[in-house]
Write a structure and sequence with these properties.
Length: 594
């Protein structure tokens, strides 16, 4: 390339840089830097790869300048004559040069050959592509959580490629609404939930099935949601079929459900139309878990709920005729309610609940008859008064017995004496069993341990304080893990479910570690102080069952026997129910009620 040729191409170079920058929506400086790098690469092909050659294009005039750079080094340190020059030779060029200075030798312009021109083109295009990908990533990574509008470009194996203007997004098959078909050039709205860097450019993932897509749609249709006056606290979807959202108002004068529904349902219908007819249940959100669960199971009417906060499970009792309605078709209603509330919901009919109560009542009656050497009438009376164990009878205040009709102090003392004798006999038998198993006396001396627990520990080969110290709370109380079908399955520990809480198990283990010399007593004291402070801050005035019953307006109507429930009777297999004939007959009827 002659000097004249370079001058003639100055304006053209700037015009090309400007056009490429505008087309790719990138900075013109990036394009000019890419051109400089391309010229440097071509010059190295001409003068040799071993040289340090640098090019500069003036962003205002388009003038190109090419230099070879050499670094001044000590005479004895020269290693690469192509990129280094000795201090002695440098002084001949300029006496003021010192070690570390650079000598710039301007190179004459040259003509690009075919191969050099092709290489330069590839360098420029690669740099431009990299800049474009970086621009796309930076533009869309800050838009995660927004609704994006685009045009369907093509559909590949169920995946929808969306043209977003200056980038492409993808709605994967599992992120779309079932049975929703798009054709090229269709307009589409979707929720941007992820932007990831990839070798071939940023991947922009869109979804129409994401719960937050519905939340954002309500924010667009309902001004109160957009302004934050109404909050959507929870959302659960079965895309294309049905959804539930939990709403609460920060202004007591505004009805959150009515505001989301709109005049004659206009607002909610706009969202339903965007979601291809997906039915939406708008549920009042409540700080009380029991009340929110009752609301979430609408339109079914709930008779009673019993919460298990440790397991995040709740048993819900419904009338027999409400059972199909509570479940919904193929378990949809209870599944969405469970997702919405974050609680595992076990449905039980009133008939099954009554049968379980009668079974538990009969078991306690037989226990009292055997332990107290009492007749069936007396045992049933004690069971009906809420006594659940012989320990309660043995150590309850005598005044509680006298309050029972037909009981006096003499009868109360006699019953309690028999109860204590039974417990002493049972304790002696259990202690003999403990010694037979080889459980050390030091284990029994741990605070929180009793003879019955010690026997169960011994049956699980936990015989010494060191053995107890090596346990974790789940070993004692049990734990949940995914089963073959993916549902959580309870794995029993050393003790039966409910015999010891996890925090009590943790304290027992820590006391054993102190006794074994594994940790300092101060560590245990600190843990006890933290647990006491936490309990003091969260101690409710009512029990969980009382709060649940109060939410239903039934406080005081349930007996205490229903608090302790057998694990296997609580679990309701929705998949098995879906296979029954009742889901096809009663389920349709339930849907019609909904």
């Amino acid at each position: 390339m002659s000097a004249v040729g370079v001058s003639a191409n100055r304006l053209e170079i700037l015009q090309i840089a400007k056009a490429v920058a505008e087309e790719k929506a990138i900075d013109r400086k990036i394009v000019i830097e890419a051109m400089q790098e391309a010229i440097e690469k071509a010059a190295k092909s001409r003068y040799g790869q071993e040289h340090d050659i640098r090019a500069l294009i003036d962003a205002d005039t388009g003038e190109q300048t090419l230099w070879r750079i050499q670094t001044v080094v000590a005479d004895e340190d020269i290693e690469d004559p192509a990129q280094q020059v000795t201090l002695t030779d440098a002084k001949k060029i300029d006496p003021n040069l010192e070690i570390g200075d650079e000598i710039k030798e301007e190179l004459p312009p040259f003509d690009f050959g075919r191969v050099a021109a092709q290489t330069a083109k590839q360098v420029i295009m690669q740099k431009v592509r990299d800049a474009e990908r970086e621009r796309q990533y930076n533009e869309y990574k800050d838009r995660v959580g927004e609704i994006i509008n685009g045009i369907v470009k093509r559909v590949e194996y169920g995946h929808v490629i969306v043209d977003l203007g200056r980038a492409e997004g993808i709605i994967r098959r599992n992120d779309g609404i079932p049975r929703e078909n798009f054709q090229p050039n269709d307009r589409v709205r979707a929720y941007l939930y992820k932007v990831s860097r990839e070798t071939k450019g940023p991947q922009i993932f869109l979804s129409r099935a994401h719960p937050d897509f519905m939340v954002k749609l309500f924010a667009q249709e309902v001004p109160e949601v957009y302004d934050g006056v109404i909050e959507i606290r929870a959302c659960a979807r079965d895309p294309g079929s049905r959804a539930k959202i939990g709403v609460i108002s920060n202004d007591s004068s505004i009805d959150p459900v009515g505001a989301c529904v709109g005049m004659r349902g206009a607002r909610v219908q706009a969202v339903v139309g965007e979601l291809s007819g997906e039915k939406i249940d708008i549920i009042p959100w409540n700080y009380d878990a029991a009340t929110f669960i009752v609301n979430a199971l609408q339109p079914a009417e709930v008779s009673k709920v019993v919460l298990d906060e440790d397991e995040q499970r709740v048993e819900v009792v419904v009338a027999d005729d409400q059972f199909p309605l509570a479940i919904g078709r193929r378990g949809q209603n209870v599944r969405l309610a469970s997702q919405l509330t974050g609680w595992q919901i076990d449905l039980v009919t009133e008939t099954a609940d009554s049968e379980r109560y009668q079974k538990d009542f009969q078991a306690r009656t037989e226990l009292f008859m055997q332990a107290l050497d009492a007749d069936e009438t007396l045992a049933q009376l004690l069971a009906s008064e809420g006594f659940e164990s012989v320990e309660e009878i043995a150590y309850v205040a005598p005044e509680d017995f006298i309050s029972i009709e037909g009981f006096d102090l003499e009868v109360a003392n006699e019953i309690q004496e028999r109860a204590r004798e039974y417990l002493e006999k049972l304790a002696a038998e259990q202690d003999a069993r403990r010694k037979e198993l080889g459980v050390e006396d030091s284990v029994l001396e741990l605070e929180g341990m009793n003879v019955g627990f010690a026997v169960k520990f011994g049956e699980n080969d936990v015989l010494s304080v060191e053995d107890v110290a090596g346990l974790v709370p789940d070993d004692i109380t049990g734990w949940r893990e995914p089963g073959p079908d993916g549902k959580p399955v309870f794995q029993p520990g050393i003790l039966k479910k409910g015999e010891m809480r996890k925090d009590e198990a943790q304290l027992l283990i820590m006391r054993a570690r102190v006794a074994a010399g594994w940790i300092e007593p101060e560590t245990l004291e600190q843990l006890e102080a933290e647990m006491a402070a936490e309990a003091a801050g969260e101690a409710p005035d009512l029990s969980e069952e009382e709060r649940a019953l109060m939410a239903l307006g039934e406080i005081g109507k349930a007996s205490e026997e229903q608090e302790e429930l057998a694990e296997e009777e609580l679990i309701f297999d929705l998949d098995a129910l879906a296979a029954e004939d009742v889901s096809s007959e009663d389920g349709d009827d339930a849907d019609s009620k909904e």
